[in-house]
Amino acid sequence: VGESETKLECLLNNNKNSDFCAPLTSFDWNEVDPNLLGTSSIDTTCTIWGLETGQIVGRTNLISGFVKTQLIAHDKEVYDIAFSRAGGGRDLFASVGADGSVRMFDLRHLEHSTIIYEDEFHRALLRLSWNKQDPNYLATFAMDGQEVIILDVRMPCFPVAKLSNHKAQVNGVAWAPHSSCHICTAADDYQALIWDIQQMPRPIEDPILAYTAEGEINQIQWASTQPDWVAIGYNNFMEILRV
Fold first, then answer.
1. How do residues 113-151 score in pLDDT, each as one tens digit?
2. Contacts 24+ apart (CB under 8 A), 101-105
3. How many CB atoms lie within 10 A of CB 124?
4. Which of 122, 116, 110, 112 is nearest to 95 (CA)?
């Protein structure tokens, strides 16, 4: 990305027999090793890509990508993938999918995976998000679900908390970048809610802050370098909110 133009630097395509591959549903860039990124796909797989910087040509570095590993991660479509900061932040990642499970993988031992959680109603899980300060915790939510599920990887299979104040389906979740006990959720009920979860495992009854937008909120991000700001997207608008 330059001041006057944006150009394609590298195309990642794992399908050698065609110009097309199965649709991708999400990707995550490893924060510790910027040469690693992961993608999830409707073909039940997760792919970990490596990036290589070649020799300098003119003023640019040639960048190429290659598949480090591709694995069948779920029994059905995979909808999200995210690297964990645990264990050095390079090798652990988790995924969620249409089979209703959260699964955790280690790049050093891909012959095994750990099922962290399975939805009791077998609903598809759409997104997951790791706690930015405490990698033991992650959040997820189900398709058409009105609650956000908080999981502790040290106690798999059972949620440590459920955030249930939304009145319509949840679309997004974002952990605070500076606090291990604050999380923001957004939903079709026009609301963005910030929760304090430090009293877990006792039930979390109500959020500590609420904002009502003028439409169904479909995306939310908490600024990593400016933690006083949260951005939401709804309809054809984006709003930046001061916490």
1. 999 999 999 999 999 999 999 999 999 999 999 999 999
2. 101/74, 101/125, 102/128, 102/138, 102/140, 102/151, 103/73, 103/74, 104/153, 105/46, 105/71, 105/73
3. 18
4. 116
Q: Do 104 and 79 touch, CB atoms closer than 8 A?
A: no
Could you read off the pLDDT of 148-189 as tens digits, one per residue? 999 999 999 999 999 999 999 999 999 999 999 999 999 999
pLDDT in tens, 86-116: 988 899 999 999 999 999 999 999 888 999 9
Q: Which two tokens stand for residue 242?
A: 């001061």
